[in-house]
Amino acid sequence: MTGTSKRESFRDVQVDPLPQRIDAYPTQTIAGFPVRPGQALPFGATPVPGGINFSVYSNGAERMTLVLFRPGEPRPLAELPFPPSFRTGGVYAMTVFGLDPESIEYGYRAYGPFEPEMGHRFDARWVLTDPYARLIAGHETWGRPSAPDDPYPYRARVPYGDFDWEEVVSPGHRHEDLVIYETHVRGFTAHPASETSAPGTFSALVEKIPYLKGLGVNCVELMPTYEFDELDNPRTDPTTGRRLYNYWGYNPLGFFAPKASYAATGRFGMQVDEFKNMVKELHRAGIEVVLDVVFNHTAEGNEQGPTISFRGLDNSTYYMLTPGGYYANFSGTGNTLNCNHPVVRQFVLDCLRYWVTEFRVDGFRFDLASILGRAPDGSVLPNPPLLETLAHDPVLRDCKLIAEAWDAAGLYQVGSFPAYDRWSEWNGRYRDTVRRFLKGDAGTVGDMATRLAGSSDLYGRRGPTASINFVTAHDGFTLRDLVSYNTKHNEANGEDNRDGDNANNSWNCGWEGPTDDPEVLRLRNRQSRNALLLLLTSRGVPMLLSGDEVGRTQDGNNNAYCQDGPQSWFDWRLTEENADLLRFTRCAIAFRAAHPALRPRSDRSAPVTDQLFPDVSWHGVHDWTPDWSADSRLLAAMFYAGLPSGAEVQHDCVYVAANSHWEGQRLELPRLPEELAWHTFADTAAEAPHDVYEPGREALRADQSRALVGPRSVLVLVARSRL
Fold first, then answer.
1. Minimal CA–CA distance to 173: which of 276, 284, 287?
2. Residue 581 belongs to some domain of the structure
3. What CATH number is attached to the domain comprising 302?
4. Given a cut of 60, is residue 1 above it in pLDDT?
5. How many CA atoms lie within 13 A of 98 on its CB side?
6. 258 and 136 in one domain?
7. Domain end marker among 426, 443, 476
8. Which of 367, 555, 691, 698 is an active site residue?
9. For the chain, percent of residues with pLDDT exceeding 70
10. Which of 404, 432, 481, 698 is catalytic?
């Protein structure tokens, strides 16, 4: 038989159709809808042959009703009580046939005792949002409030899963190669100068991928992108009367649902696909995606807060409560999720698995992550089951897990967070040390050396990649404000300047706020470059705050959580106005990528036998002689990596000298082998464009034995061939 006839014969084979599954048929009718007992797992609303399976957990409810709506209509289409036979343990499950996922919204009424002192807050007046809702309707336009008579403002919907990933996969960068860029999806493109087709959206961020790629970052850390309520802030700007928002988004409503108002297609219910397309295009450009997630509290707040979901379904399971039934407040926002309760622990795991499998994100930054290590009574667990579960989960195996290793109740675990050889941490010690060193505080040189070399005092055998190094983040001053203000200026937040941290370790360089003084401006520019250069030559994982590379200011506001406007947005005109700073940052990122000595691999084999220098060595005015005294304000480090290259060894050697003194200092340079010579990569004391060189095109130094490091400046040299 020929190949052609064989294929034809296969086509001609008659195969009996598979028998219909017996559970594809309804067994009864409720409220006019054909139904049958559902599958308890997975939780949420899941399309099945011929219908949708609804499954919801409540250990304390006495009965449960599924409430169906047509999209946008104020009154329910139908209410379907779960028969007792549809309940298994604490799970209510029902398959409803004949529903079109695109034309239905759903929620629940939970019936049970309202006994706050016992932890129960059931109230069947409220239609409750499914905690596992993959899509939430009702808030597709940013800043538009719900209709006053809407009985169900956060409406759960069922998305389709038909997205085409086109074989695009994650770049899979190693931890030591990451350069993280923290940004806000709306704020990155909301400014009119962004010139994007749909400002403030996932699709607009896609339009800015060439900028990110040109900058050199290879990972974006996105502030909350799930559904949250931006309108829960009751305050106004006391000067202008302008309403204030919960702009940052640290008040979750729907942990599984991409925020509809961040999608240009949100009004069509296509935010899931738009988010996936953003991830796909970032991956195509070699950029990973880390999501900022908030599993420490919800938008339901304290006893006076709204009943939206968790509180009405099973308050005593989902929240930490005091003996009198009040909400424990380790988050500073009114409530605290009971993350180490087995049900809540599974909820967190299911959520993260969903974002990884469905949206293919590369990792998570956990807000106030120390809360995740507290027991239901608030005590600190020595071996937190949630943190261990996330560290060893097979689906999350390749994810970056980053902890903000403190909480709002005083638990500070930087360097001691339960890591299970998997977690990295926002290194708050790094931030504070760099700031103090740069403004010239005495007694900081030794600590600065430790931070520069990877914070081994904190992370030991975990290695430098456990340290997420940062000087600025969304919470606090921008880099430009760090060098322009001595104190916070948060009056526009409507809290009488009481909010925000008072311990900023900032310095205004001689004048508070805006100035035309050329000397002050030169010093501020130099200090900004100093911070960026130290960050990008430190061992560990650097994280940049969006806009620092172009001198973005928040006018001294160090807690701009409520500011949805130019004060928080990325002003794209700055890319031209501060082009020299942008070029400096691009070069510094590229320099880091070019030099393995700055980012040693955690799994590197034993050093080559003929290496020239130690991995890290310390120097001062005299080579090999650092000054660790309390009065010293000079630190010089030489980073070295000997890398096998065929039969020879490639020597990578970088020298970093940081001077926070107000006077310049002349340094002896370590002697190099005859075939190598020192070249200048960056000198922040020099005026642009001579403050930095393109990597690989550094300037050969005329004097190979000495170098001048200017007042309050950083000098970076690289050893290259003399040829």
1. 287
2. no
3. 3.20.20.80
4. no
5. 10
6. no
7. 426
8. 367
9. 95
10. 404
